[in-house]
Every structure is written in C-alpha cells, then in structure tokens.
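User: Some background: our group keeps a shared notebook of sequences we're curious about, and every so often someone picks one and asks for a predicted structure to add to the entry. Today it's my turn. The entry only has the sequence so far, pasted here. Could you supply the structure so I can complete it?
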Amino acid sequence: MGNLPEYLSVDQIVEHLLLLEKVQIGLEDSKAGRVNTKEEAKEKLGKWLK
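Assistant: Of course. Here's the predicted structure to add to the notebook entry:
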C-alpha cells in the first residue's frame, strides 16, 4: 500500500483501497485494449457535459 501514515481512519483505508482497485481495473482494461481514443472520449464526455 505504499507509504501510508501510521494512523488512518477506516474511511481513509476504504477510500485508498477503492482507488487501488480502480487503478488496477484501468490497467487491465488498457492491456486488454478496452480504451477510447481522444476523439471518442471527447464525444462521450460531451454528452455528459451538456
């Protein structure tokens, strides 16, 4: 888990673990080719940002 402070709340630990899980999923998606081009990302985000 890296260099974490000695004392953390349960919420901080859960938040850190969720972040690590999301990073791992992203790395696996990238290796498997499940990625978007810059243009695809702009298109998808554009729908959300309207």
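Suggested note for the entry: The CA atoms of residues 21 and 32 lie 16 Å apart. Residues 10-49 form one domain.
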